[in-house]
Amino acid sequence: MGTPRVQAPVWDSLSVGELASVDITSRDFAAEPFGFWARLRDDAPVQPVRWARGSTAWVITRHPDVEAALRDPRLRKNRQDALRPGVAAAGRGVPKVLAPLERGLLSLDGPDHDRLRRLVRQAFTPHRIELMREQAEQLTESLLDTAQRRGVMDLIGDFAAPLPLILIARIIGVPEEHVPRFRAWTRALLAVGERPLRSIGSVLWFMHYLRRLIVARSRDPRDDLVSGLVAARDGDDGLTTDEILAMLVLLLTAGHETTVNLMGAGTLALLEHPDQADLLRSGSDDPEVVRTAVEELLRFTSPVQTATERWSATDVEVAGVTIPRGSLVLAAIASANRDPAAFTDPDRLDLTRSPNPHLAFGKGAHYCLGAPLARLEAQIAVPALLRRAPALRRVDPTAPPAWRGGAIVRGLESLPVLL
Ligand code: HEM
């Protein structure tokens, strides 16, 4: 059983007012957010905090409230629907040229969302994902072969990032020779909110490329996801090109920038808890041991720290606090996953934890569509890494881990390791 982690004491000395002005999108915050969430859970479980571009976000931090918020139809993903004329719009706007991407699953509610999800599910099936198992195993081994020859690797850049990216590109049907460009394009896409001018050129190229791929598969279908999305039908209804484009972009970004963080932060947690790493290493042939372990790594690391933005379409009362209509609301998954009311000893990494009602993949209508793929990847990659590198360790164990800044996802920039 792992030793309990020490929470940064700094949060204990701050008043709620001071906590509300902490920049929760900074690198410093990403390094040790859990003490902050604990303070809010205890003292202000529904609290407006500083958010991107000078705006304010209401964060909800207790497990039952987070779960209820994720299911609450009054908290909308479509900001236009939620905000009425006269209500001040907070939060970020989307450049006009990216408007087609606003037709994605994470921008829609109710019947519009249900329709899209029904059609997409026809193509993005558990069967299609299960077909990737062998490829995921081969790719894992080949990335580890290269790393082992060198004896050292950046766990993020050389392993955790390429694996999900190459797999999702193959699922989509991107020709192998185009895969390397995808990393740069997905990065540009994720940076578009923060650095619109620098990223927009790459994003437009990316959209152009995907449109051409959709047209190519409409004319000449293959056994891939793009062809499946083109063919998906519900009666007379089908997906438009813009909807397929939005879906591909969402799958690429959601499918890439999240799993990398699970594998990165998950491995760091194992390096910090060697007894737990040994447990997983010795049980790595037992699917049940591996399954339970990955669920705990999901809970403990919460790669998606807060769910994506929601907007209150009406005044909404949570835990006795009224969130005014038109507010930006964040359900703090990372906080719910460490709530002592839901988990015994929540700050302890316990790979045998069961049951484990974590909310790492969300809940309700927007529950992660890629959860089976993310699980498959982590269940293959993490035990393989431990098995192949019995003495795995950080190149410089004394250096503070390099966390990336950013709002919603939480992950490491790099993690140099010796195999
Ligand atoms: C460890 C990896 C992952 C984590 C922790 C994760 C987490 C999440 C969470 C929390 C949500 C809900 C967001 C919200 O309600 O605001 C979500 C939605 C989604 N995820 Fe994931 N995800 C992961 C991997 C993936 C992968 C591999 C894919 C696809 C290839 C994917 C595709 C999606 C999609 C399409 C949605 C939107 C579903 C909808 O709105 O109906 N995710 N994910």
Folded structure, characterized:
This protein has helices spanning 16-20, 27-31, 34-43, 63-71, 79-82, 110-123, 126-130, 133-150, 155-160, 162-172, 179-191, 196-219, 225-231, 241-257, 259-272, 274-282, 287-301, 333-336, 371-388, and strands at residues 46-50, 56-60, 75-76, 152-154, 233-234, 237-238, 310-312, 316-318, 321-323, 328-331, 393-394, 402-403, 412-414, 416-418. It has 419 residues and is α+β, with helices and mostly antiparallel strands. The chain has a single domain, classed as Cytochrome p450 (Orthogonal Bundle), CATH 1.10.630. The strands form five sheets. It has a five-stranded mixed beta sheet. Strand 1 and strand 2 (56-60) form a beta hairpin. It starts with 15 loop residues before the first helix and ends with a strand. It binds protoporphyrin IX containing FE (HEM). Protoporphyrin IX containing FE (HEM) binds at residues 70, 105-106, 117, 168, 250-251, 254-255, 258-259, 262, 303-304, 307-308, 333, 360-362, 366, 368-370, 373-374.
